[in-house]
Design goal:
459 residues, alpha+beta, 3 domains, nine-stranded mixed beta sheet, two-stranded antiparallel sheet, 17 helices
Length: 459
């Protein structure tokens, strides 16, 4: 038995919205700037539009080709060659797209007094059932506290506190050759964008993070602070951000006996500093605030350590650190709260935008392209949410644009069946049209209200 297929009206509406988004931000020019162009054959824009729209349909590109072979003007090899291309600089594309959205859409809607920030974090890109994926590594999954096969998707994002936009990324393998299950393909020229991306994926995580930040600063993306979690925070990293990148950092520092800040002329851990100082009493927003120094060799920068109570365990505390001494304790806590935007971003990409489900390629280039496509999907929904007057979440926006099997086509099919049945009754039973209509009205009154409304809309 075949299911009732959906008509093309919703697909055409979705394509119109996506085409308007592509035209508004000049996606074609951005693709050419990232070296994504063709001398002959099908336009790159047409292929990229299909790649972005796949998440809003029920099926993957492969299943769409199987179920609707006449829908696409090109064969599947055209699509796969585009995704596997090592010439395209996908990091540059996502950065140019985010920069244009910020400049043309976000900044006109934002007060000049609002603090814009960069956010750095990583998330698991799992390929746990794979064995031949290029640069596949054994990485630790912090959520399940176990080692799995896959990559660490290091992401640099931008936020003004309201809208989060992904700026750049890198699928990190590992610098330790023992933990790499598969090495990089020797057929890829190391001078190409794909070759440089493979080399970057095998570097230390902190070095890659510097690279992404330097590219964003060079592009002119407006931000004065960098937010990150404990995995990246160290006194040397704080000094490097302040001295080398001319940015201020707001982060959560580790409570470790091996990490020291200079306080009262002596290097001490944050736990030792906490024991020496008098805490604030009552239901204060923070427990303690002290001024110290982050030291890297002969260099040092002043920092403010803010101790806040752990909401999950009231008996424990967390430590925030800021290199911007002009910020008050409340402002430091509020600014660090903007880091939650990247966690929402990771959740949306995995739950709605098919980050880990759509790509089954073993090519590192295809996986990098797939991540850039997912970032474009998120950017489109973020713009829609920012310009909307309501408070819909990104998940709700996704489902509104999703080509899931709605109830309306089923109502249309049932309405057609009932209309045909009424015509047959009139022909063979010699009943008047008004009598048949009266019988149909009585029948519809006995149906549930949601069915009645759907059928009346189709009539």
């Amino acid at each position: 038995m075949k299911s009732i297929t959906q008509d093309n009206r919703q697909m055409e509406s979705l394509n119109q919205k996506m085409c308007l988004f592509f035209e508004r931000y000049g996606i074609g020019k951005l693709l050419r700037s990232a070296n994504a162009s063709k001398l002959k054959g099908f336009p790159v824009m047409q292929i990229f539009l299909l790649a972005v729209s796949t998440a809003f349909f029920h099926n993957s590109f492969y299943m769409q080709m199987r179920l609707h072979p006449g829908r696409f003007p090109f064969a599947k090899d055209v699509f796969y060659r585009f995704m596997n291309s090592c010439r395209i600089n996908w990091r540059r594309f996502t950065m140019l797209l985010s920069s244009r959205i910020i400049r043309e859409t976000i900044e006109p809607l934002t007060s000049k007094n609002r603090q814009n920030v960069f956010i750095i974090d990583d998330s698991l890109f799992s390929r746990n059932r794979s064995k031949k994926v290029e640069l596949l590594a054994r990485v630790f999954d912090h959520a399940h506290q176990e080692f799995v096969y896959g990559f660490r998707m290091l992401t640099l994002g931008w936020s003004d506190g309201n809208t989060f936009l992904p700026v750049s990324h890198c699928l990190l393998s590992t610098e330790n050759a023992k933990n790499r299950m598969v090495e990089a393909s020797s057929a890829i020229d190391p001078r190409t964008n794909g070759g440089r991306q493979r080399k970057l994926a095998q570097q230390k995580c902190t070095d890659v993070a510097w690279k992404l930040l330097e590219e964003a600063i060079k592009e002119g993306i407006p931000a004065k602070h960098v937010l990150f979690d404990t995995w990246f925070c160290s006194p040397s990293a704080l000094v490097r951000i302040k001295k080398d990148l001319q940015l201020d950092a707001v982060a959560m520092t580790k409570k470790s006996s091996k990490m020291h800040y200079r306080y009262q002329g002596k290097k001490q851990s944050v736990m030792d500093i906490y024991k020496q100082c008098r805490k604030r009493r009552g239901r204060a927003k923070y427990l303690l605030s002290v001024e110290a120094e982050a030291v890297r060799g002969d260099e040092s920068v002043p920092v403010r350590l803010v101790y806040v109570r752990n909401r999950n365990k009231r008996s424990q505390y967390l430590v925030l650190v800021s290199t911007d001494m002009s910020l008050s304790e409340e402002e430091i806590i509020q600014m660090y709260g903007k880091r939650w935007g990247i966690e929402v971003f990771f959740k949306a990409c995995k739950s709605y935008l098919r980050l880990s489900r759509d790509c089954r390629s073993i090519s590192y280039d295809a996986m990098t392209a797939h991540v850039a496509v997912v970032f474009t999907r998120y950017a489109m929904l973020a713009v829609e949410q920012r310009e909307s007057v309501d408070e819909r979440s990104l998940g709700e926006l996704f489902y509104l644009a999703n080509e899931e099997m709605p109830d309306l086509p089923y109502y249309e099919a049932l309405c057609r069946i009932m209309t045909q049945f009424a015509d047959l009754v009139q022909q063979h039973c010699l009943l008047d049209e008004s009598v048949v209509q009266e019988m149909l009205d009585i029948f519809m009154e006995q149906l549930p209200s949601i069915w009645t409304e759907g059928l009346r809309e189709c009539a």
